[in-house]
Every structure is written in C-alpha cells, then in structure tokens.
Amino acid sequence: MTDDRNPATIDRRRFLTVLGTTSAGGALALSGCSTDNVQKLVPYLVQSEDQVPGLATWYASTCTECPTGCGVHARTREGRAVKLEGNPEHPINQGKLCSRGQAALQGLYNPGRIKAPMARVADGSFQEIAWDDAIARLAGALGKAGGRVAVISGAGRGTFSDLLDDWTSALAGRLVRYETFDDAPQRAANREVFGTDQLATYDFGRARYIVSFGADFLDTWGASIENARGFARSHGFEEKDVAKFVFAAPRMNLTGLNADQWLPTRPGSEAALALAMANVLLAERGGGPVGLAGALAPYTPAMAERETGVPAGTIER
Ligand code: SF4
C-alpha cells in the first residue's frame, strides 16, 4: 500500500489524522525513518485483545524448519513476529534453538521470498499473477486432471498437514512430501531391524566412545539440539572421563569440527567402514546372533580400505 504523496507537503488535517491513528494503538504498516516508499498507517478496526501497543506479546508454537519440531516462543510487537526463542519447557529443545530455527523469521520477512502466485510464461521464466487469476487457473487444471493429481509439500505436521491430507483425498490425488534432510531412510532401517519405523533417541550424554558414520548429528541430523546437549555433557570438561568422538565422513562440517579424529571417507562408503569395524569387534570379542559372523566375513579391513580410503590399520585399532 504505497502512498506517493510527498510528506513534506503534509497539511494540518493530515498530520492530526496520522497522530490520532498512531495514538489509537496498533498499526499494520509504518513508513520507517526514510521519506522513500512512504506507506499508509492503518489502525486496527477490531483490535486483538492480545495486543497492547508498546508491549511485546509472546506465543508458544512449534518450529517447522525440520521434522524435530522444537518448541518456540514467538515474540510479537503490534501483531508482527520479531524474534523466536526456544521454549524452556519443551522436552526436546529445553529452551534452545539451532541457527536454522533462529533464522525461521526470514520466511516472513526476507525480501527474496515469494510474495504472490507465480506462473510460467513462454520464455520459461516465472511471473507474478493475481490471486483471482491463480485460483481460477488452478481450479480449471484440477477439474481437467480427473484425480491424476500430485500435491507436493514440505514435511508437514499439525492442522495444516491435516488440511492438505483432506484436500488431496477429496481430489483423489497423491500427497508427496519433500524434506531436505529426510529421515525416511532411518525409519525404513528401523522398521527392518526393530520392527518399528519410529526414530530412536540417542543418549550422547552417557556415551564414552562415539563413532559417527556420516551423521551430522550436531547440525542437520536428527534432534540436533537434544544431541548437542548430550554431547556437551559427555565430551565437555565438566565430566572427568571425557568421551572420545571419531567422525567418519567425506566432508568436514560442524559435527566433524567437534571430533577428536576425522576419518575422511569416499562418499557413500560409510556402510563398508561400519561393517568392517563390526567384523573386527566380533572377531575380538565373540558373541552375536547366529549367522552374524558369516554375514560380516566379506567386510574385512582390507576390503573396507579399498572402498573407503581409510587405512586397514586404523579400522582394526
Ligand atoms: S532442530 Fe532447529 S530447525 Fe529443527 S525444529 Fe529444532 S530449532 Fe527448528
């Protein structure tokens, strides 16, 4: 809502209008300190009883930036979210937020965000279109699709996720969820091994020796905040017996920077390293279910060295 009238020529009536609107309380848009891009000041017609001009209002909510779902407190001023903090009473993050959660407000305010429906034009680029036009085009396309509809969404939870489920079912379509750091492989592995596709929680706080096969557990893998809290307990100096941490991965990252030893591996070869280590441990200590030794036999340290690039002597140690 741009008002291009020059504020330098403001008359007495307009000045009093602005003053009255401001003192009446909430405003949806303010002009800022510059005279460029002057905008209208619009008062609440029906002011929310939660909002007190000049005072922050906090709402408890859930971070949706990754599937962990940490609890957040959103600080708002005059109806606008201005800061996210961790909810200290939430069992997973206990008051902390990772950098991704802290930056979640950028989804609301980043100038590069998508602000309107976009349609592809003849040269292959996208251009903004009006909402009415977008809704009419979508309704027309869905009507013609006759159930051959795929709805692509991010990792969903809560009422919006339920809404998408219901909407897709009503269209007889298929809902495809996309998550950048997807935990579907972990769930599939747990289903195979433990008979449940739930995600495990890892007690890093009580671990004495930690080996990570490519899992960036302090940044993008699993419940990173909960992991970091446990890791700080076992690997920090407050405990006499500091845990050792070995990180096997092709790329140095935040988790690798906290390791006592980094084993650079060829991309995608971590499984061979893990199986060779299991083979060595089983040979040294015995035990294990029937058939395990035979299944691990091909994964010798020499074979793992060829696959991963990690020396056989390091694997045996
Ligand atoms: S780990 Fe970070 S991104 Fe994921 S839910 Fe928690 S704060 Fe949000």
The first-level CATH class of the largest domain is given as Alpha Beta
Question: Considering the protein shown, what is the CATH homologous superfamily of the largest domain?
Answer: Dimethylsulfoxide Reductase, domain 2
Order of helices and strands: HEEEHHEEHEHEHEHEHEHHHH
β-strand percent reads: 15-25%
**CATH architecture descriptor name of the largest domain:** 3-Layer(aba) Sandwich
Described by strand count, sense and barrel closure, the largest sheet is: 3 strands, antiparallel
Spatial separation of the terminal alpha carbons: 68 Å
**Ligands present:** iron/sulfur cluster
CATH topology of the largest domain: Dimethylsulfoxide Reductase, domain 2
Secondary structure class reads: alpha/beta
Total domains, how many? 4
User: Going across the major beta sheet, what is the strand order?
Assistant: 1-2-3
Quantity of strands, as a count: 10
User: What is the C-alpha radius of gyration, as a whole number of Å?
Assistant: 28 Å
Number of helices: 12
**Mean pLDDT score, rounded?**
85
Give the helix level as a range of percent. 25-40%
Overall shape: extended
Unreliable residue stretches: 1-8, 21-32
